Structure formats: structure tokens, C-alpha cells
Amino acid sequence: MNATLAGLLLYVVLITVVGLAIGRRVTGTGDFFVAGRALGPVLLFATLLAANIGAGSTVGAAGLGYENGLAAWWWVGSAGVGTLVLALWLGPRIWRVARDNSLLTVGDYLEYRYGPSVRAAIAILLWLGTLAILAAQLIAMAWILEVVAGVPPWLGAMAGGAVMTVYFVAGGLLSSAWVNLVQLVVLVCGFLVAVPLAVHGAGGVSAVLDAARDVPGHLDFMSNGSSGWMYLMLLAPAFIVSPGILQKVFGARDVRTVRIGLGACAAALMLFALLPPALGIVARAVAPGMENPETALPVILTEGVPAWVGLLGLAAVLSAEISSADAILFMLATSLSRDLYKRFVNPEASDKRVLRVARGAAVAGGVGGVVLAVLLPSVVDNLSIFYSLLGVSLFVPIVAGLHSRRPASGEALAAAAAGVVVLLVARSAPDGGGWMVPPAWGLLAAAVAYGVFFAGRMVVRGRRAGAA
Asked: What is d(CA 327, CA 435) in angstroms, rounded to the nearest whole number?
């Protein structure tokens, strides 16, 4: 066993022990789902940022930086923009609704505004889509282990899935919030140290820039290749309405915590967005013929920096993948146990029974994520599926539900269905949706469908009132 692998295993043991220790304090679904609504600004910021910096933000963003250069900033930067919108607009408002009505999940909110049919439809849809983003985190973990120790990808995915499932099952949001704080410290330190030393090892800033100038468009910020401002339509809406993010927001102790935690997370995401693409650009300068761009980050951290820096950087990347994975398990567990089981299968289930189902759902989600990771071995492809589906199905119903006095299930279901169908059609079109990216077409279709059904309902209501 080499020293780098031994160090990573020691770190994994540490965060698992922390998660299990905190999990002993969890006695009911209130602690498991929303941490007793007691998260302060620091813990909320830590758990949000750690959850948002995952496989796509590290391994995926570095791969995009390797291929497309500076324009890869928009992959993580767009998430920061969406989080800022959530901090200034939607977050405080939906937190008040959740507090006043004792809502624990986004499914609770959807039923409160629209009824049980919307809750069930969205829960099933998101369960299928969420497995894709979980698989992306496990793929990134597998690549780290493959580069460091030659571990087969399938075995690396299984090992990563086992670690994050163990500590999340123990304590849900309460465990993950504290583990995320540990992971965040390692994550930030790792990248802040690794980037300048990797640049130095590649010959300095001038050498890296000279190599980048030799690649057409590599220093263009707004758009190059598949990267650029168009990620705003894919990522920003998803980060405004993500159930995993909103349910963490539900755990805040007050509105001030929501604003500070989300605002700080948005600023940190937009700053962090520079680091992985920078490492990808450095990797392009050092190894221009890399066959798989998504291995650029683990390769530069094992070959382009001193061993101790590589260990810190790899621990940072592993932190990012595990922390995002537990946020995804959070969505899966709460969706199945409360939105489906408690609401439709066994409404009389006790709090302890629902908690057991939530933990079982987390285990099932972990297994499903491992299987999908083996079948779809691309980080960015998996994340694109999830973020697209999330945005077009949830954005319009959640936002409209907060601003409409008379929402009904018909328009919410129509919006979600229209958004998903148009998204799939646009993705399968030869030109990829033409002058707008597929998620933009899906959002437009969802908004139009919601408006048409809402207007139709108002017309029918008006006619009935006139006839009476």
C-alpha cells in the first residue's frame, strides 16, 4: 500500500467516525430530515457548500478546463449564480412556509401547495433522476482510486458508496452537517495549496498561459467548446429549486441564517469556480495528449505537485465527492420515506418506523448509484441528465406556488410533464435544440403549460360564477 492511499484511507476513517458519533444524537425524523431546525450560519454554509462542490465541481470542472479552458468557470459559477438568487429571493420565503407549516421536505411543500398527486409524481421522477448525480460522485471517487492505487473503477465506486452510506444512514442531515464542516476545511485548504504549486511545477504562470494560447479559444471566458454562459440555463434553475439544497435550508434556525448561509455559499462557489479549471489548464500544459480529460485532476495531483500536496489535494477532491453524495442520499431518503411511504403506503407509520425506512432508502439509493456508475462512466453526462430534469420539472411549480394564491395540481403536473417532454425532444434533436439549449426549451414549455392551465381554470371558474 502506497503512502497516498494510506493517507486517504485514514481520512475516510476519520470522517466516518465523526458521522457515526454525531448519528448517536439522532432520535427522530426531525433530527434526521432538518437537524431540528437548529443549524446556524456556519453549519448551514458548510453543509451547503460541501454539498454543492462535488464530482462536477472538481473532477468534471477540471476535465472541462482541460478541454475548453477558462470558459469552464461557468460550470460551477452558474451554480453560484443560482445560489445567490436563492439567498436573495426564494430561500427566506420558502423557509417561512416550511417553518409555519412544519414542512420537512420539498414533497411536503408540493403537497401543501398543490396536493398529493403532485407530490407523488415529482418524488418518483426525482428518485430516478437523482440516481444519476449520485453515480457521478461515485465515478469521480473511482477514478481517484484508480489513479492512486490502480483499483478497478467498479471496486472504487463500491468503496465510495459504502463510506458515504454508512455515515449518512447513521445521522442524516445532523451527521452530514458536521462531517461536511470537516470536509470543507480539507477541501478549501487542498485546492488553495495545490493550484499555485501545480502552476509552479508546470513552469510558472507564463509557461501555462503560453501553452493555453496555443489551443484555440482556451482563454476565452464567455464560451468555448461545450463550456460557457449557456450553463446558466442548465445549472442556475436547478440550484434554486434543488430538493437537497432546499431541505438543508429548512434546517436553518431563522431567516437571517438562510440569507447569510446561502449568500456566503454563493460567493464561495463563484470564487472556487476558478480553481478546478485552472488545474485542468495546467494539466493540458503538462500532458496535452490525455485520453480521458476527466482524469486530469487526479493525474495532476499525483504527478504535478509534491507528494504531500497531492495527498491533501486528493483528500480535498474525495471530500467533495463524498459530501455531495451524502446530500444526494439525503434527497433519496427523505423522498422515499416521507413523500411516498409515509404519505401513500403507511400514513399511520410511527416516527421511528419512518426513520427506519429513510435509512433503508439511503442504503437502496447507495446501491443504485453504484450500479449506475458502472453503466454510465461519465461525470458530466450524468450531472447534465440530473440538472436538466431537476430544473424543468421543479422550477416553475415551486416558484409559482410561492407567488400564486390559488395554485392547483393540474397546472403543476402540466408544467412538469411539458418541461420533461420538451427537454427530451430538444436533447434528441439533431441540432441539440437550435439557438437555445435543451433545458431552456424545457423551462419555457413548463412556464407556458402552467400559464395555459391556470388561465383555463380561471376562465372555467369565472363562467361557473357567472352562471350561478
From this structure: 34
Question: Which parts of 214-350 fold into alpha helices (H)?
Answer: 231-241, 243-250, 255-272, 275-286, 296-303, 307-334
* Residue 204 three-state SS: coil
Phi, psi for residue 39 in degrees, rounded to 5:
-70, 130
* Residue 54, SS3 per DSSP: coil
Torsion of CA 132, 136, 139, 140, to 10 degrees: -170
Report all structural domains of the chain as residue ranges with CATH numbers, in order of start: 3-380 (1.20.1730.10), 404-468 (no CATH)
* CA–CA distance, 303 with 298 (Å, rounded to integer): 9
Q: In the structure grid, which three cell numbers stand for residue 38, read together?
A: 437548529
Measured N-to-C along each axis, helices 255-272 and 243-250 cross at an angle, to the nearest 10 degrees, of 140
Alpha-carbon gap, residue 176 to 22, rounded angstroms: 9
As a whole number of angstroms, the distance between CA 100 and CA 86 comes to 19
pTM of the model: 0.80
Q: What contacts 443, CB < 8 A, 6 or more positions away?
A: 233, 237, 391, 392, 395, 396, 419
Residue 85: Cβ-neighbour burial (10 angstroms; 0-12, 13-18, 19+) = middle
Rounded CA-CA distance 195/201 in Å is 10
Q: Digits of tens for pLDDT over the chain (468 positions)?
A: 567 667 777 766 776 676 666 666 655 666 656 566 778 898 889 878 877 887 778 888 999 999 999 999 999 999 999 999 999 999 999 999 999 998 888 888 999 999 999 988 888 877 777 777 778 778 777 777 777 777 777 787 787 777 767 756 655 555 566 666 776 777 778 888 888 989 988 899 999 999 999 999 999 999 999 899 989 988 999 899 988 789 889 989 999 999 999 999 999 999 999 999 999 999 999 888 888 888 888 888 888 788 777 777 777 777 667 766 766 777 777 778 877 888 888 988 888 888 888 888 888 888 888 887 777 656 666 677 778 888 899 999 999 998 887 788 999 999 999 999 999 898 888 776 666 788 899 999 999 999 999 999 888 887 877 776
Q: How far is CA 446 from CA 107, 129, 160, 214, 439, in A?
A: 19, 18, 36, 43, 10
**Residue 171 is placed in which grid cell?**
445521522
> In the numeric block, which cell numbers belong to residue 215?
489551443
